[in-house]
């Protein structure tokens, strides 16, 4: 199934039914009076998060949706039928944006969560409603109100506990295959992964977490090069970032250079994203001898001045992956406990999430504006403000290096 994470749709709620003007007409009953009923309310449009969906592809080709109109009122005080609501299923993790105002209408982050996006029109009143002691035969009704109509932009951000960072061919897909049941494509050439892949990692009984491979990250991704800019936004909702680095590249390049490329792209895309907890994972350790391995790790850690945890693994041979998975599970458990017990910590994380979301959306909008200018023939698009995204990593403490066994 094709992975689609952004679509634009038009939704229209149903119009309310008109009120009925009618008078009672029965044999032997004179001046029966008014008996026109009210119309029915128009149906509303809702979006509902469905855990069985993982793409917005259904809305790529069908873009207009309308709920049912309310029926008009009837005689003998009969109320018209209400229009049926329209419920549109979307994947969990979908953000709903009003295209006209760019206002975020809601965020569907839990299965079954429902969001009203277009309110149905109110019903019209029949002439029975206007009967009074001084107006015994009213000829007044009201029409139904039109339902809301709006253009929406739907953005899907995959929900995962852990996000994988790394240049093409760093071994991200191999790592997911090693620790989960997911089977992404693996080959000995770059860009084999073209869409985000999710895998569920089981760690003991009743313990698991979701890991996401974010593809297409290359130098210049934050400026729109390659596919990376489309998928960097999916990192916004992860709780931990694993930075995979090929510690034995075939071209003989410095692994630290590859790590710095990704860090630079993160900083340019969203400075707040660099504040997310991030672990360094040096992959393909099986390609080096033991003494070479230790020296390579030392060089990379010193070159990057890395302060956080460092793991040395071989995803192909599944060496060190179990220890890494256990460490991730412990981190997620401890994080959940801190959120529950420390309000300040929870609020700080929530604020960081908001900053990342805002910066990511602003960066994507900026690139969209630049593309629009280029399509219009305007060449001076480099004047856009947004080049100074430097943000120093001020983590403290020594690097914790965990080797394969």
Question: Summed up, what is this model?
Answer:
Helices cover 25% and strands 20% of the residues.
Helix-strand sequence: EEHEEEEEEEHEEHEHEHEHHE
Specify the oligomeric state: single chain
Give the neighbour order of strands across the main sheet: 10-11-9-12-13-14-15
Report the sheet-strand fraction: 15-25%
Helix content: 10-25%
Taking all Cα atoms into account, the compactness measure Rg is: 29 Å
Low-confidence stretches: 185-194, 380-398, 401-405
Main pleated sheet: 7 strands, mixed
Number of strands: 15
Distance between the termini: 39 Å
Coarse morphology: elongated
Number of helices: 7
Mean pLDDT over the full residue set: 81
Ordered list of secondary-structure elements with their pairings:
Elements: E1 6-12, E2 45-50, H1 58-61, E3 64-66, E4 86-91, E5 94-98, E6 104-108, E7 114-118, E8 149-156, E9 162-165, H2 172-179, E10 197-202, E11 208-213, H3 228-232, E12 240-246, H4 255-269, E13 278-283, H5 290-304, E14 309-312, H6 321-341, H7 343-375, E15 400-402
Parallel strand pairs: 1-3, 2-4, 9-11, 9-12, 12-13, 13-14, 14-15
Antiparallel strand pairs: 1-8, 2-7, 5-6, 5-8, 10-11
Helix pairs in contact: 4-5, 6-7
């Amino acid at each position: 199934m094709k992975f689609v994470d952004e679509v634009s749709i038009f939704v229209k709620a149903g119009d309310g039914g008109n009120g009925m003007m009618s008078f009672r007409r029965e044999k032997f009953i004179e001046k029966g009076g008014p008996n026109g009923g009210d119309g029915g309310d128009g149906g509303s449009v809702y979006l509902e998060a469905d855990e069985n969906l993982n793409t917005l592809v259904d809305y790529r080709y069908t873009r207009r949706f309308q709920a049912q109109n309310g029926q008009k009122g009837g005689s003998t005080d009969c109320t018209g039928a209400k229009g049926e609501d329209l419920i549109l299923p979307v994947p969990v993790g979908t953000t709903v944006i009003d295209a006209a105002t760019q206002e975020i209408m809601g965020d569907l982050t839990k299965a079954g969560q429902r969001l009203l996006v277009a309110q149905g029109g109110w019903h019209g009143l029949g002439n029975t409603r206007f009967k009074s002691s001084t107006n015994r035969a009213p000829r007044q009704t009201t029409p139904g109100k039109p339902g809301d109509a709006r253009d929406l932009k739907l953005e899907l951000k995959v929900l995962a506990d852990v996000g994988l960072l790394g240049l093409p061919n760093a071994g991200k897909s191999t790592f997911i295959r090693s620790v989960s049941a997911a089977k992404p494509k693996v080959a000995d050439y770059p860009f084999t992964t073209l869409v985000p892949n999710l895998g569920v990692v089981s760690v003991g009984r009743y313990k698991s977490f979701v890991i996401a491979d974010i593809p297409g990250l290359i130098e210049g991704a934050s400026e729109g090069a390659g596919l990376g800019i489309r998928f960097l936004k999916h990192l916004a909702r992860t709780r931990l970032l694993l930075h995979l680095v090929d510690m034995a590249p075939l071209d003989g390049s410095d692994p630290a250079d590859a790590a710095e490329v990704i860090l630079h792209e993160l900083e340019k895309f969203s400075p707040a994203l660099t504040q997310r907890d991030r672990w360094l994972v040096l992959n393909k350790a099986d390609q080096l001898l033991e003494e070479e391995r230790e020296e390579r790790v030392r060089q990379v850690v010193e070159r990057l001045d890395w302060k956080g945890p460092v793991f040395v693994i071989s995803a192909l041979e599944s060496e060190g992956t179990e220890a890494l998975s256990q460490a991730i599970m412990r981190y997620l458990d401890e994080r959940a406990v801190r959120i529950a017990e420390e309000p300040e910590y929870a609020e700080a994380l929530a604020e960081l999430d908001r900053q990342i979301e805002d910066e990511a959306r602003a960066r994507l909008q900026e690139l969209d504006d630049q593309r629009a200018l280029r399509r219009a023939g305007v060449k001076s698009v480099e004047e856009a403000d947004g080049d100074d995204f430097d943000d120093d990593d001020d983590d403290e403490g020594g690097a914790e290096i965990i080797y394969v066994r």
